[in-house]
Design brief:
Membrane topology: Multi-pass membrane protein
Subcellular location: Mitochondrion inner membrane
Mean pLDDT: 81
EC number: 2.5.1.39
Number of helices: 19
Helix content: 55-70%
CATH class of the largest domain: Mainly Alpha
Pfam family, one: UbiA
Strand order of the largest sheet: 1-2
Number of strands: 2
Distance between the termini: 103 Å
Catalytic activity: an all-trans-polyprenyl diphosphate + 4-hydroxybenzoate = a 4-hydroxy-3-(all-trans-polyprenyl)benzoate + diphosphate
């Protein structure tokens, strides 16, 4: 009853002229009861934690009592922002709910916004960044002299996975810093930590510095030559958010950044790209193939935001080819597979690679392009999330089988049998 009494007494003193009859007093008491119940209900459903303190403050600030013609009326302040299909930063805070499941639910509340900033709870992007590293590692392993042992391949792969996790998080933080004035106007991104003001830009910059230092620590575990190949990719990471403002093909810039790992596996295993021409051609083809793959899956991803992107002034390949998206996807898939086959040809790959990697990629991409419903946000997300494993897994299995065959000398035995038959 204390909130009711406080509301009643404060309004009675402030608007004494309105107290001319018992009826007016009754109206005000009823209003205060309703307001108290409304506040209590919202505070009970949103625990008093740092994750939603801003939300409660917004609730309390955004409502005022006005007595007009001796009758109290509850009004909500008009928003100063333009009308859009998505929410403003303040309304997005109202809608934010702290995580109740997964890793983020067990983290200290003060760490949750930073974990969300690094997309710890959404690892699909990390997998997309990791797969090119894995491809190049498996493709380069047979080229080393002697052939790279399995434990070295596994250790290198583990380092690439940790690096992908860290650097993808750094890229997301940089992206959110650039887009801090755009994200509040896009439905999917309006609850991101900077957009909802859970993390300040200054704190995000400091956090980015920590992420980059952690990434450097991982990079230093590789041979020294990897430093020269790895550091230039930072320029591409910072460029992608700007590309969305000036070109309808920012996915190409994203592909340049996300596919960089297709180069890194070669120097990581001691294969010198400057002296080994076959390795250089293979790395160039694999890198280009992954750029096409990135443009393909991110074009599907961009369809989830296509309506909000128009209103926010964000450009994407999905907007440029909204009416003929699937033919473009088919073209990108064909380019990806052709370049992947070129990478295998450059290093003398055998039938296991062509059937497993190229054939598997063709089958999974064709299925995804055929079945994805570009008008459905949930369906686009499902294919984006699972297509990573379908296509990336198929290419990995083919490359792993090719590496195992060469490690066990299966192709050498076949060559000897062919030579013996020819001699006979």
């Amino acid at each position: 009853m204390r909130p009711i009494a406080h509301c009643y007494s404060s309004l009675k003193g402030r608007y004494a002229s309105g107290w001319q009859s018992r009826t007016h007093g009754t109206r005000l008491v009823r209003l205060c009861v309703r307001r108290s119940l409304w506040i209590g209900r919202n505070l009970s459903t949103q625990p008093d934690t740092c994750c939603n303190a801003t939300s409660k403050a917004s609730h309390l600030r955004s409502n005022i009592i006005i007595i007009k013609n001796d009758a109290p009326v509850l009004h909500r302040r008009a928003s100063k922002s333009p009308t859009r299909s998505s929410a403003t930063p303040e309304s997005s805070s109202e809608a934010y709910k702290p995580p109740t499941t997964g890793l983020l639910s067990v983290l200290p509340c003060s760490m949750v916004p930073y974990a969300e900033l690094a997309r710890i709870d959404k690892p699909t992007g990390t997998y997309y960044l990791f797969f090119p590293c894995l491809f190049s590692t498996l493709l380069a392993a047979p080229l080393a002299s002697p052939i790279t042992p399995p434990l070295t391949v596994i250790g290198t792969t583990a380092l690439f996975l940790s690096g992908a996790l860290i650097m993808r998080g750094a890229g997301c933080t940089i992206n959110d810093l650039w887009d801090r004035n755009l994200d509040p106007h896009v439905t999917r991104t309006r609850l991101r930590p900077i957009a909802r003001r859970a993390v300040t830009p200054k704190a995000a910059i400091i956090f980015t510095g920590g992420q980059l230092l952690a990434g450097l620590a991982v990079l230093l575990q590789f041979p020294t030559s990897c430093l020269y190949y790895g550091i230039p990719s930072l320029a591409l990471v910072a460029t992608y958010p700007l590309a969305k403002r000036v070109t309808y093909y920012p996915q190409f810039v994203l592909g340049l950044a996300f596919s960089w790992g297709a180069i890194m596996g070669f120097p990581a295993l001691g294969v010198d790209l400057l002296t080994n021409h076959s390795a250089l051609v293979a790395a160039a083809c694999l890198y280009s193939s992954n750029i096409a793959w990135t443009m393909l899956y991110d074009m599907i991803y961009a369809h989830m935001d296509i309506k909000d992107d128009v209103k926010a002034g964000i450009k994407s390949i999905a907007l440029a080819h909204e009416d003929n998206t699937k033919p473009v996807l088919v073209g990108l898939g064909a380019v990806q597979i052709a370049l992947l086959a070129g990478a295998g040809a450059a290093v003398g790959a055998g039938p296991i690679f062509y059937i497993g990697s190229c054939g598997g990629a063709a089958l999974t991409l064709a299925t995804m392009i055929w079945k994805v419903n570009l008008k459905s946000v949930p369906n686009c997300w499902w294919w984006f999330k699972n297509g990573c494993w379908f296509t990336g897994g198929a290419i990995t299995l083919g490359l792993a089988g090719e590496y195992a065959a060469k490690l066990m000398g299966l192709y050498d035995k076949e060559d000897q049998e062919i030579k013996s038959v020819e001699q006979v």
